[in-house]
């Protein structure tokens, strides 16, 4: 979200004043409208690179160690790797706790690097950390500055640094105690007071942490981030670079210590943690990396412009993978239809480019089938109705029991609006061959032509059966809203018994 889009949606007046405090003069004496206007007017100061650099330096050496630890976890590790740099505040809290628990868990495992040089560097860095912690059970700003410089010199990642501190029982806090939610909240408020983190309240009253797009860009420049973590892991899977020789050469050129016997997964993790994607693809000199023809071919496969300078091709590829969404869906989930539910509207409108990008489909033909599967998931898991088992080949995509009747439905996945007249004969066959009376025939698609509404009513007049038209986006909104009720009763299917376009705003449950 852009900075100005958030200003009128701060959760509380206190949040607004806290966020105004770094750059708005006399913010305490301004009314709400004046405060909003002043924040918008001073917006460029929030993402000015010099201001952000100074603020980050202050946070690194903050007198409260909790702030020193938490600010990077919240901003760099979590939010900058989320879609739109935002997350519900409760989820941010949990993500911080999960991350810290994972670091402590890793610190209890014996990690032995195959590279002798890497092990020596780790041992040296750990020795310096131990020495720094000996005095006063704390680290001074000067010691912290030295540690940061040594960390970079020895190619120690932030995660390795945290694991080593956890081995010394000083991460996240002394005795490996995990930060409390109140401590995370305090850091959140500190980041708001520093102008790096904003908050907003959504229409459904959920409070979000958000790094505005402009501040996110500045943070990424300062921290050298070109791509989100999950997107980079997708990028390194590409066939032209997914080989050990290419990885080894790139890692050696980067001056990163290399485990000669590392497997593919270890090599990829080393690259993601140490090497920017633009360097991976373009190399350190014009002769390194992929050549322009390979990059152009890659762009074509991604449906991107395939002409231009080598740097332009690389930029397009990196931007493409940076836009890949951070889907929490795993290939091992018991119900893979969750993914079809998440991309239900894209399946309905046959947005094949986006569906391929997000690894929802591999073949165009899968679009229709997954659209149907997503609909089954909605009725079963969100609306509380289990569709009937279908037999044979001549039948609609789904059937629901409704009292002593049936509700039939059919999915139409199209790049354009569905025109009911083009399918009415097919639907009529399903209706007339039904084993029970049809209460309504539901058509689910991306959108519908104006003529479709008239066609539905004409069919009702002639056959006394209603045809209801429901857009995929309306069905998703309906499913989301109903499932939030946590009601044990299923959704009242009577809402679908109407002719023409369904207005989900008037549904009753």
In brief:
The chain is of the alpha/beta class and 509 residues long. It folds into 3 domains: 3-223, no CATH class; 229-322, no CATH class; 385-506, 3-Layer(aba) Sandwich (Restriction Endonuclease).
List keywords for this structure.
single chain; 509 residues; alpha/beta; Restriction Endonuclease; five-stranded mixed β-sheet; three-stranded antiparallel β-sheet; 25 helices; 52% helix
What's the arrangement of secondary structure elements?
Layout: H1 3-6, H2 13-20, H3 32-41, H4 43-46, H5 49-60, H6 65-78, E1 86-88, H7 89-107, H8 116-134, H9 141-153, H10 158-167, H11 181-193, E2 198-201, E3 207-210, H12 213-223, H13 229-235, H14 244-253, H15 264-274, H16 277-282, H17 292-301, H18 310-322, H19 337-342, H20 344-348, H21 352-357, H22 366-382, E4 398-402, E5 405-411, H23 424-432, E6 438-445, H24 450-463, E7 466-471, H25 472-483, E8 500-501
Parallel strand pairs: 5-6, 6-7, 7-8
Antiparallel strand pairs: 1-3, 2-3, 4-5
Helix pairs in contact: 2-3, 6-7, 6-11, 7-10, 8-9, 14-15, 17-18, 22-25
Task: Give an overview in words.
The protein has three domains: 221 residues, no CATH class; 94 residues, no CATH class; 122 residues, Restriction Endonuclease (3-Layer(aba) Sandwich), CATH 3.40.91.30. The protein is 52% helix and 8% strand. The chain has a five-stranded mixed β-sheet with strand order 4-5-6-7-8. A three-stranded antiparallel β-sheet has the order 1-3-2. Strand 4 and strand 5 form a beta hairpin. The longest helix has 19 residues.
